[in-house]
Amino acid sequence: MSTLHLTKDTTTADGMRQKIDLAGFTIHTDVSIAAGGSGSAPGPHDLFDASLAACKALTLTLYARRKGWPLDHVDVSLTSDASAEREGKYKLDVALTLHGNLDETQRTQLLAVADKCPIHKLMTTATIEVSTRLADEAA
C-alpha cells in the first residue's frame, strides 16, 4: 500500500500549484497559465503519462539486466491525445529507442515486454476503484 500527501504549495501567487510528498520525495504539480495556474510544474495528466513512460523504461532495463543483454538505456517518447477524453477515450502513443548492441530477437522481445510493465497493465486491464471522502470522516 502506498500513501501520498498533497498540499497547496504557497510559493506561487495563483494558489494552484500543489506539493506532493511521496515515499520521501517531493514533487509538484500545477496547471497551465491558460487554465489559471502558473505553469510551473507538470499537470496531473503529465504525471499520469510520465508514470507509463518511466515504468516501460525501468521494466525493460531490469529485464535486460536479468537476461544479461547489452541494453545501455531506453529513451521513451510519449504523445497523448486527450481530444476524446470526455467520451472516455485517452490515447497514448509510446515510441521506444533502445540503446545498446542488441540483436533483432532481443529488440523484438523487449518491445513485447514493454507492454507488460505494471503501469501499462494497470492502465489497460485493472478495474480501478476510487473512493473519495472528507479527511475528518471515518474510512
UniProtKB/TrEMBL annotation:
It comes from the Bacteria. The lineage of its organism: Bacteria, Pseudomonadati, Pseudomonadota, Betaproteobacteria, Rhodocyclales. InterPro entries: KH_dom-like_a/b (IPR015946), OsmC/Ohr_fam (IPR003718), OsmC/Ohrsf (IPR036102). This is OsmC family protein. It holds the Pfam family OsmC. Gene3D superfamilies: 3.30.300.20.
